Amino acid sequence: MNIPQSSFPRIIIIGGGFGGIALAKKLCKKEVQVVLIDKNNYHTFQPLLYQVSTGGLEPDSIAYPIRKVLQGYSNFYFRLAEVERIDTNGRMLQTNIGEIQYDYLVVATGSETNFFGNKNIEAMGMAMKSIPQSLNLRSLILENFEQALLTDDLHERDALMNFVIVGGGPTGVELAGALAEIKKGILPKDYPDLDTRRAQINLVQGSDRILPAMSEIASSKAERFLESLGVNVWKDIRVTDYDGVHVSTDTDTSFDCATLVWAAGVQAVRIEGLDAKELLCRGGRLPVNQFHQVDGFKEIFAIGDVAQMETEAFPHGHPMMAQPAMQQGENLGENLVRIVENKPLKPFVYKDKGTMATVGRNKAVVDLPRFKFQGVFAWFVWMFVHLYFLIGFRNRVVVFINWVYNYIRFDREARLIIRPFKKVRAK
Amino acid sequence: MNIPQSSFPRIIIIGGGFGGIALAKKLCKKEVQVVLIDKNNYHTFQPLLYQVSTGGLEPDSIAYPIRKVLQGYSNFYFRLAEVERIDTNGRMLQTNIGEIQYDYLVVATGSETNFFGNKNIEAMGMAMKSIPQSLNLRSLILENFEQALLTDDLHERDALMNFVIVGGGPTGVELAGALAEIKKGILPKDYPDLDTRRAQINLVQGSDRILPAMSEIASSKAERFLESLGVNVWKDIRVTDYDGVHVSTDTDTSFDCATLVWAAGVQAVRIEGLDAKELLCRGGRLPVNQFHQVDGFKEIFAIGDVAQMETEAFPHGHPMMAQPAMQQGENLGENLVRIVENKPLKPFVYKDKGTMATVGRNKAVVDLPRFKFQGVFAWFVWMFVHLYFLIGFRNRVVVFINWVYNYIRFDREARLIIRPFKKVRAK
């Protein structure tokens, strides 16, 4: 790994997501050596991935170079690497670029799509948890429309224009809304020789309401917004299989579609050496105490999606979202400094700042702790908050310009098949 | 292909580059059916590819959806396809999505990198003629610096940080200048644990001056600009081989580098059926008369890089650049309408609007027909002209914002390895 020895204790952070970056910032100019490891050289602003998939934003606008975050930090080392195994006894990491010892280890690896063991859906469905995945989805959507032009078989053509989005959480709702807007505003102009009105956008939710983590008013309003955009919302239906065209469910309902997006579950990213069955909670999360220490370890911590801190308010851990990860990163950063300085630790207390989801132009739902609202104002709040949390001044300006342009012009100009996906999948 | 029959004559345009798009615009609302075929669903603004490679711009900002260009045009059909063969006798195209008849055919396929048969350089060197190629180069540059951190072998580390750019035309000069600015402004901050001063940027030119198509004063100024940025300019040297590390030349000079960019030649993109040896000029271009008709055919035309119209001023055809392609597209568009209306044709006359190249901030060279200038003003002219010719209001604004940001901050934030390249090449 080629990291020099230091007289300061070495803290290794695995993962440059919301948690890892918030933590790293707190360790700047402290008496520690920090090694941040990520398999990408950039931080991904995951809440806007669906806009990359739907051609509203460039991928580069929601990514930020990790090295730039760390510029000017002393005793910081970034390594582009994949962690293969943790040797908890030897306090050592094995990676694809060599081994490295740690004094303190922070696991902030986040989460990945959970297909619940369904290999067919994993092979033929699309996930949307990373920038390459989002770009693949963008390519596939556009490739399917190009292909729809070529067939005289009406059933095949419809399937190429149909979408099934599995999972009614924020990702599924936001993607369904964006696709509905594309169907209305862009497809008829881009494909005058195709009857794009026949395109169907289906949002399939396993439980009895979409956005189940939000308030009931938010759920019902979001559903009404989606329906006003022409999205078919299906509830109490579970998708059970998909062969690339036919979607089976646990009811009589079935769909034919060439694009199935799986947004119905996430699981913690596991690392060998820290994945004993008795250790893992539901979804593969690591149980941690209120100081983020993983059960059984004093020197290993976990934050964000990968950590499960069971509290009275959150008996199954905090929601797997940006806010808890950032707050945990900040708290752990302060505590690690306290550990080095031999001061008592401060337990983590989560401040719920609320949740929100957007459906389309002028349509969003916001749940604040004391106040819930929906509609135009909620939509502006959603945009403001997302711009605020986006890292980097340039990214904020470029995203803002794109949004203004898209809003005024009812357009999304990044509908580009930069890397075709169908051939890749066929291999 | 599923293109309906029409009472109007059918014009097929192969290629949505500068020539093809300019031509299509002239055919809007005329009594013709137009089918535009491209292997990408977007137009590429090739002059700025080097900025994508060097992290200064997002790829999406220099690409524009072809369907959006054609929005609202009646009797226009776009097909995402690769042409496999032209059957000139049957007036038919064979493509990967089926066959199609034409009344008039316009070949506007542009050019691709010419490795002059050197398979090693083709396998291990990087080209920069398309957006995926430019993104691959971006990834490789960043991956090499990440790898340079990991080795203790000083020679290997130097090779990972060294660049050889073969070809002193605008592409090579602009890329070398951009890399020199990255070396100076970004690398020391991004890689504090690496002695990035040792990185060498070598521009290798086969003839006795760089920018040989421009004036002598432009060449010598550009060379001085490059040297002030720390670029090593090598003249009268031809690169003969490359194995991924070692670069051989036809002199005693040799280089060790992990990144070799081949910008030393282009050739017309050939299509089977129109590639008889007796037909092709140097570089595989198709000889055309002053009405863009390919020798021996009344109904087949060629414009842009793929066409060679021999005139007194340009005995080997016009320069393979955007300007001639656009002017030819416009002229041919008007002539095709005249053909349909049975009016006499207007021969093509090229208006030389000048050429320019940029080296770095405040450093560019401009040759106008009556006036040549270099330096800060030339640089502003270069930026203005490129913004002006960029298609799309959003693209212009986003590129402008990026340039202002990069200028003020001495930064390039798109230094992201979205799709790693080394593994791809290893396959």
Automatic annotation (TrEMBL), chains A, B:
Reactions this protein catalyses: a quinone + NADH + H(+) = a quinol + NAD(+)
Keywords, ordered alphabetically: FAD, Flavoprotein, Membrane, NAD, Oxidoreductase, Transit peptide, Transmembrane, Transmembrane helix
Parts of the chain that traverse the membrane: 376-393
Enzyme category, top tier: oxidoreductase
Residue intervals of the External alternative NADH-ubiquinone oxidoreductase-like C-terminal domain: 353-408
Keyword match ATP-binding: no
Molecular-function annotations in GO: NADH dehydrogenase (quinone) (non-electrogenic) activity
Domain FAD/NAD(P)-binding stretches: 10-329
Family of this protein: Belongs to the NADH dehydrogenase family.
Protein name as catalogued: NADH:ubiquinone reductase (non-electrogenic)
Species assigned in the record: Flagellimonas hymeniacidonis
Phylogenetic classification of the source organism: Bacteria, Pseudomonadati, Bacteroidota, Flavobacteriia, Flavobacteriales
